[in-house]
Amino acid sequence: MTTLKVHNIETAPEGSKALLENSQKAYGMIPGLHGVLAGAPGLLEAYQTLHQLFVDSSFNNEELTVVWQTINVEHACHYCVPAHTGIANMMKVDAALSDALRNRNAMPTEKLQALHDFTLKIVRNRGNVSQEDLNTFYASGYEERQVLEIILGLSQKVISNYTNHIANTPVDVPFQKFSWSKENVEV
């Protein structure tokens, strides 16, 4: 049962209607998350803007997936883990990477493992990382820009993950085949 309304173009506040129309054009549907976020036009706009900024960051598709799913799994988001599994498939990311992220297994490369580990440190420590943590991340081939871009991705994911927890957003039909629950993952 949802605890927040999932809007469509007709029921959304005026300030969200054009944003939902953009979602419809981009995805061929209005994702349930967007429908919930539409209840606050500024939040939907912020989410869509952060999403595009993160997609346009220096990260490649595998790295985007690592950051998104690391955060989604850590936050135990029942909606975003399946949605980003489907998105990763559309982005031609190897399913083995998605499976590793969903199941908290090792990443396929040392560099992706470093990205995963550092993202977790930022999330778990609320941004309080040490110089040693930074140096380890830099030694894997990343730079200050990527530290800041992880924060950008985290900003997007906080909006979606927290909203989905409160709203209990139903997983969209195209992503239901990728359903996920934290109970199925060893911590």
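[next item in queue]
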Amino acid sequence: MRSHGDTAEAITLLTLDLHPIFRNNRDLDVALRQALFRAAATGVDVLEVIPGKGTGKLRDRVLACLGQAHLRKLYARVEVDPHNSGRILVHLR
């Protein structure tokens, strides 16, 4: 919950766990795009993507996918959770 003075505003979060589909590149890209478009269309504040820790290759693939110009238009910023490198937070506009 984020607080602004006397008013409190709830942050909506959508989570995409990539563990079940990490082996299939096409399914991974489709799932990420669908989640991002769904989050943007429904007014979600943050898309939480869980690639897991592992070797970091999946995290790098997710970040590369998010770096595509047509997807960058949908969000304000992306951050890897400083306390959990297996968690990416996509802050939508």
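[queue empty]
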